[in-house]
Design a protein that fits this description.
Rossmann fold, elongated, homodimer, alpha/beta, 12 strands, DNA-binding, 12 helices, six-stranded parallel β-sheet, about 45% helix, six-stranded mixed β-sheet
Chain lengths: ~350, ~350
Amino acid sequence: MGRQRPGTPTLEEVAALAGVGRGTVSRVINNAPGVRDSTRRAVQRAIAELGYVPNLAARSLAGHRADAVALVMTETDWRMFGEPFFTEIVHAVGDALTDTPVQLLLTLVRTDTERRRFVEYARGGRVDGVLLMSVHAADPLPDMLAKAGLPTVMLGRRSGDESVTYVDADNAGGARGAVTYLLESGRRAIGAISGPLDMYVAECRLRGYREALELSGVAADPSLVVEGDDFTEETGRRAMTSLIGRHPELDAVFAASDTLAAGALEALGAAGRRVPRDVAVIGFDDLHPARPTDPPLTTVRQPLGEIGRAMVRLLLEEMEESPVAWRHVILRTELVRRDTA
Amino acid sequence: MGRQRPGTPTLEEVAALAGVGRGTVSRVINNAPGVRDSTRRAVQRAIAELGYVPNLAARSLAGHRADAVALVMTETDWRMFGEPFFTEIVHAVGDALTDTPVQLLLTLVRTDTERRRFVEYARGGRVDGVLLMSVHAADPLPDMLAKAGLPTVMLGRRSGDESVTYVDADNAGGARGAVTYLLESGRRAIGAISGPLDMYVAECRLRGYREALELSGVAADPSLVVEGDDFTEETGRRAMTSLIGRHPELDAVFAASDTLAAGALEALGAAGRRVPRDVAVIGFDDLHPARPTDPPLTTVRQPLGEIGRAMVRLLLEEMEESPVAWRHVILRTELVRRDTA
DNA sequence: ATGAAAGCGCTAACAC
DNA sequence: GTGTTAGCGCTTTCAT
């Protein structure tokens, strides 16, 4: 495997051509202060003439930094949340990094082999920090990285007392707001289609549903809640079907994700129920840019851009300080009303 | 910015603990031959005890390789082709790299800033090679990388005489086959909805359409061809609308992408034409895993997995040899019949 | 089979 | 301001 072509000019050659010392060239390429303007220009001319490009391995070795961060996606992230969610986060992260010299590296970790390889890559010092899209309780990666002392920021948390730095949406609050809105608009028989409860995000959203009922003094009927095995449309469809079978009087549903909501809508249509007139549906909105106004649904929208920006801010801060200050950020969600109620 | 935590054990410390020289430790971690088994085990024990992880910057500097390759996506790739296309390629690439020590890095290049940063990253020796998803004629990146002597493989080509190594589907052949199939099934008034002709891929597909007509001795009517400004559904819809306006007798359409085809189908439905009974539609299938059997459409399918694997094979080969052998691979497409004709 | 030693190209600390 | 120097931690000859 070849790399920087043999014969690539080095800093030393630049220095020789410009008639200055290596230190001066180093200062120029790092725009450090304390270099006379004429000298700087002379060096820049030499750099241009030679087509000099700094060797980043050498810089890394001497400077103890990689000027790169990795954003890790597990296979399940990719599938579960779908593209739009992912796209918005990545764009926000990229934007937040624009004014820095930090290169963003996306990596896919699907198998144990890939995880091992990535951990070696990260621990080996090729990145200064790691952003994790992962949210699975069983994922060992966050702890591996944290134990290795690598600045790490997660999107979402694995449990209520997550130790690794994270940024999350206010899932419980958002769900509570949604259900409260349904109650205020006069709905009473409100079902819930939950995601898999071994995921903390699903747990939070279901908790929000329950809290809203409780706060309004509405008795919680366990048979109004269906736990899905995943967040897919198919699961939403099935959940909705069983829900209307058990509860013909149902007049509203809170779905823990927009894909679940989409499935629910379909099942309602198939059952001849009109939405939102007969049954109002509110979904938690993980994918919003994808489905413009498509199901005329009131949704709980997450501030995806803000989440990405917050992740970068936290990561950069952790990269500065040596004594890592663990921190958590929870961002508010927004209830976007269309014509549900 | 911190990196490998201070206090990280070095190869030297491992050597000391194991009571051997640095060279021996190096041989062990690279599992080079010529180390006695007992020695090897002693070293491995020391590595485990210390929790040693090689410093990749140092390895890179001394070894002249990065053990990493980048897959670059431009903003337009990402949007234009959509997720499924992208996903399949990336998965295939990842799989092809599984048995190597090479880490796959996805990078997003949207702006000039990001392009500059990436070029410095790549030329700086942080990757041994680059895979480009880009297909835009105006994209300067391929030439920048090639000029820098970096092994580079493109997906698709920018023109008929592309100099950079690429892997491409047989776009002209696929289109020709599709239109021939329509002709053979008795259709005669066959329209074409083309993509933007400043993209070589669109040019090829349209050429295939024309060649099929010519081979069958059917006169080419220019008013049966609509050039879209992009590959979106909206464009497909508009193109189809204008097509049936001009040619009520139309009984088949070749669309240069599946999104264009989807738009065309919609417009046909809105116009009260039945598909495929009244009008047969064949699309070139860029996204197939996404739309399982959704529009009951015969499509020209690209071997996405093979494309990804071929890209990796070519890249690895270029990384081996010093005298770069420019090469191009064009893979056959497949006509997947559903009930179009 | 294994140890010793010479770099790889840069940054940063220190002298001038 | 600018030149000099000492590493950063590894791979790779070259001895032994």
